[in-house]
Amino acid sequence: MTRVHDMGGRYGDGRVVPEPEDQVFHEDWHKRALAVTLAAGAHGAWNIDVSRHARERLAPMDYARFSYYEKWMAALADLLVETGLVTADEMAGANPTMSPRAATTLTAEAVPAVLAKGGPATRASDMAPAFAPGDVVLTRHLAENTLVDGGHTRLPRYAAGARGCILRYHGTHVLPDSSAHGLGDAAEPLYAVVFPASELWAHPENPADEVVLDLWQSYLVAG
Amino acid sequence: MPHDHPDHPHSLLPPDPALRIKALETILTRKGLVDPAALDAIIDTYENRIGPRNGAHVVARAWRDPAFKAALLEDATAVVSDLGYYGRQGEHMVAVENTDKVHNIVVCTLCSCYPWPLLGIPPGWYKSDAYRARVVREPRAVLSDFGVTLPPDVAVRVWDSTAEVRYLVIPQRPPGTDGMDEAALMDLVTRDSMIGTGLAVAP
């Protein structure tokens, strides 16, 4: 089974509500939640896959009722305690003590350079590309992490067991299924794979429509 | 509110979100793990410095310069980097072009992946359950929420951003824009047109 965040194709949601381009944040606390999350992440105590998984493993009821930045905050609080940056007592209100990790705290002067530097996901890999554009492939029939029970994966349930075609080769990228669980980067060839809408949905809106997903080599077999 | 999992550390914080982030910020500041001035700098970056005008600049240039557009479609990361638009959440860029035959739309069904250096922080609707759930299955119905109707002979291609590759849609250049300069063309390029939920504005 997958988790509550894996909602692509789900029925029952209402209309999408457009909003003006100049509305970057809706509440002042949203800004702080974004900034605190980015600044705390700069210590390098976790990577992007670990932090995504921390949001995904919130209890389903919490995931559904929390607004976007509430999910970020909850996952951040969980990660801070799990990695030992903050103790549970401190989180509950005990007097905080200075951290030995304060030396790696992001300064205002370093912010532009850190944001501009980013964090590329490409890594060298000893796994050679098995597919080329035009090849027909089949995705795993279970959208699950094969390394860790209940672990992080980036194959959505709606695209499991589906037949598609390699559209583009992206190079070798960190495998989130491994990286989210401290198992190393395990970089693999990554491909854009195109699926006819009729392969994914019983009632596609238009037979010519398609969905493209970026999928790692170990998610695919020759189709 | 009840918590099904009281062992989750986040349940130790105050329930009100504004108070919760205040408490987190205070704890982290007193531990020396965040610098409040750095928080202000991050907010200033995404509120005032990095936003969809960056993407509009790229699109307007692509409309005017066929060689630039060809290079953008071939290797968007290199091309946008040359314009100074490389950075966090834009490390691996791909540009996809709308034509008379194909209309591209970008989503992240699993979270909210989005090309920050070119478009800034994603709008609320991009992060909403409704968009994430619906746009892969019924993109034309979602487009109608934005007031957009496509001819039936235009195929929709939805890009679900499941890896660290980020997608920028190059909308179709509106008719009647020959001879317009880059700045004037930029005004026609909306954020939504670069996600694919809108079209470029006619002059």
UniProtKB/TrEMBL annotation, chain A:
Q: What is its EC number?
A: 4.2.1.84
Catalytic reaction equation(s): an aliphatic primary amide = an aliphatic nitrile + H2O
> Which GO molecular function terms does the record list?
nitrile hydratase activity; transition metal ion binding
Function, as annotated, reads: NHase catalyzes the hydration of various nitrile compounds to the corresponding amides.
Q: What class of enzyme is it?
A: lyase
What is the protein name stated in its UniProt record? Nitrile hydratase subunit beta
Positions of the Nitrile hydratase beta subunit-like N-terminal domain: 1-105
Pfam families the UniProt entry points to: NHase_beta_C, NHase_beta_N
Please provide the record's keywords in A-Z order.
Lyase
Task: Report whether Lyase shows up as a keyword of the record.
Answer: yes
Q: Does the keyword Nucleotide-binding apply?
A: no
Which ranges carry the Nitrile hydratase beta subunit domain? Answer: 120-220
Q: Which family does it belong to?
A: Belongs to the nitrile hydratase subunit beta family.
From TrEMBL, chain B:
The record's annotation in InterPro entries points to:
CN_Hdrtase_a/SCN_Hdrlase_g, CN_Hdrtase_asu/SCN_Hdrlase_gsu, Nitrile_hydratase_asu
- What keywords are annotated for this sequence in UniProt? Lyase
Gene encoding the protein: nthA
Organism for this UniProt entry: Roseobacter insulae
The name of this protein is: nitrile hydratase
| Top EC group | lyase
Catalytic activity, EC: 4.2.1.84
Q: Kindly state which reaction or reactions the protein catalyses.
A: an aliphatic primary amide = an aliphatic nitrile + H2O
Q: What are the TM regions of this chain, as residue ranges?
A: none
Domain Nitrile hydratase alpha/Thiocyanate hydrolase gamma as annotated: residue spans: 17-197
UniProt KW Protein biosynthesis keyword: no
> Any idea which GO molecular function terms this record carries?
nitrile hydratase activity; transition metal ion binding
Q: Which domain of life is it from?
A: Bacteria
Record flagged with keyword Ligase: no
